[in-house]
Amino acid sequence: MAETTPNHLFELSLDRESIDNLTETARWGKFLAILGFITIGLLVIFSFFIGAIFANLSALSPYPSTDTGAASGTLGVFLTVIYLIFAVIYFFPCLYLFRYSVRMKAALNTNDQTKLNQSLKSQKMLYRYVGIVTIIAISLELIFLLIGGVAKLFLPH
Questions:
Q1: From CA 82, how far away is CA 71, in angstroms rounded?
Q2: Does residue 5 lie in a domain region?
Q3: Which residue of 40, 78, 100, 156 has the lowest C-beta tally within 10 Å?
Q4: What does the pLDDT look like over 13-32, one tens digit per residue?
């Protein structure tokens, strides 16, 4: 038979040291999130410039060729897309960190348990997102290493 007691054995409380630590993490988190948003903006702007630079690269070549123009244009579009994908991937951790920081500061200033819970949920989402992206990145690296190793076996020396 299931017990109907609460999930916890005791209530946690925030003492002065905990509040000070959380206040400082909220400040640093907000600072880092804002820097992240600025970086994302610069990344998006730069993505279009790098695409245009590579698209026009054939005009700067001392050996003009029709193949160079098509290749550099394709590379420019590819780099633009890659930079935009990185900007989107980087946006969500910055957003979760910003939400954590703003909500934590509000929770501590107003002694609001709901805002504290929302803040901690944003922190959880940040860690979950970074963990999933890390797992995906490691998996892709292992796949590329495996493909490279198999290709090395079958390619002529």
A1: 16
A2: no
A3: 156
A4: 889 999 999 999 999 999 99
How far apart CA 90 and CA 133 sit, in angstroms, is 10
E-only strand ranges, 6-154: none
CA distance 96 to 44: 20
Say what the pLDDT of residue 1 is.
Answer: 47
Of 140, 133, 141, 149, the closest CA to residue 88 belongs to 133
Domain span at residue 108 reads 17-154
* 96 domain-assigned: yes
How many structural domains is the chain composed of?
Answer: 1
The token pair at 4 is 């109907």
CB atoms within 10 A of CB 128: 11
Output the pTM of the full model: 0.79
> Is residue 28 domain-resident?
yes
**How many C-beta atoms surround the C-beta of residue 10 within 10 A?**
6
Is the Cα dihedral 36, 41, 44, 49 positive or negative?
Answer: negative
Query: Cβ distance 129 to 97 under 8 Å?
Result: no
54 touches 73 (CB < 8 A): yes
Instruction: Give the whole-angstrom CA distance, residue 62 versus residue 84.
Output: 31
> What would the pLDDT profile of 41-86 be if each residue is shown by its tens digit?
999 999 988 877 776 766 666 665 555 556 667 777 888 899 999 9
Q: Is the pLDDT score of 149 beyond 60?
A: yes
